[in-house]
Amino acid sequence: MPLTILRVQKEPFDSAAETAPLLALRGDIGAFVSFTGLCRDEGGRLAALEIEHYPGMAEEEIGRAIDEAYTRWPLEAVLVIHRCGLIRPGEPIVLVATASRHRAEAFAAAEFLMDYLKTRAPFWKKQHGQKAGDWVAAKPEDDAAARKWSS
Amino acid sequence: MKALYFAWVRERVGVGEEEIAPPREVKSVADLVTWLKARGENYAAAFENEKTVQVALDRSHVKPDALIAAAREVAFFPPMTGG
Fold it and tell me: ipTM for the complex?
């Protein structure tokens, strides 16, 4: 049975502590890939990032992405943690980790999950700088990146 | 049914959540958007450019031609910027 960890939370997380259970798994795991998305300071101009989300749908949509990852690649474990609420520059926003027998699927699944999170997970970022907050606009590059996974 | 609004759609409408009771003639998501726009200037502003507002029915992404009949929850939001 593969191990799946999925959480949406306000609090910052420690990537090493959260991924420790994947590294402690017994079995034939030869590859472990971990990605952490961080809040940039936008050249010192950003005071905070505010992440709004759709409670319920966020967990369901991330769950669907993880289910799809399991059908596409042989994986032993998948972890996704996504924060919501106020994020300060330098803090982590999202953690995606995968474990598998060989490295190809661990890398591919981690990238797939991040592309999915960027385009289909119901979160919206608002940048708070010197002026009133501005909603971050979706980027065409993220849609293009997500499309490469469709056959 | 429950209607939810997120990000700048929520800011323009003025509320994040409300109960709505569309009439029977409102069958599809596109019909629902048309009906909402007629309810007030805040809705008209939120849906001014319909192409930029995405929709979920019962927490699944749907297209404008989706039928709303059995849905308990509809949500309107801009393209997502998570990750």
Answer: 0.92
Torsion of CA B56, A120, A16, A4, to 10 degrees: 60
**B6/A54 touch (CB, cutoff 8 Å), yes or no:** yes
Task: Please state the domain extents for chain A.
Answer: 3-147
pLDDT of A26 > 90? The answer is: no
Residue A121 has its nearest CB partner, among B6, B60, B83, at B83
Look at A114 and B77 and tell me if their CB atoms are within 8 Å.
no
pLDDT tens-digit series, residues A47-92: 999 999 999 999 999 999 999 999 999 999 999 999 999 999 999 9
Superfamily of domain B2-77: Beta-grasp domain (3.10.20.30)
**In chain A, which ranges are E strands?**
3-9, 31-38, 48-53, 77-83, 85-87, 92-100, 123-128, 134-135
Q: How many angstroms away from the CA of A78 is the closest CA of chain B?
A: 16
Q: Is B6 on the interface with A (CB under 8 A)?
A: yes
Is A120–B81 a contact, with Cβ atoms under 8 angstroms apart? no
Residue with tokens 């995405």: B54
- Torsion sign, CA atoms B51, B59, A56, A22: negative
Query: Which residues on chain A are in Cβ contact (under 8 Å) with B75?
Result: 54, 57, 122
Each residue of B7-34: pLDDT tens digit?
A: 999 999 999 999 999 999 999 999 999 9
CATH class (in words) of the domain with range A3-147: alpha beta
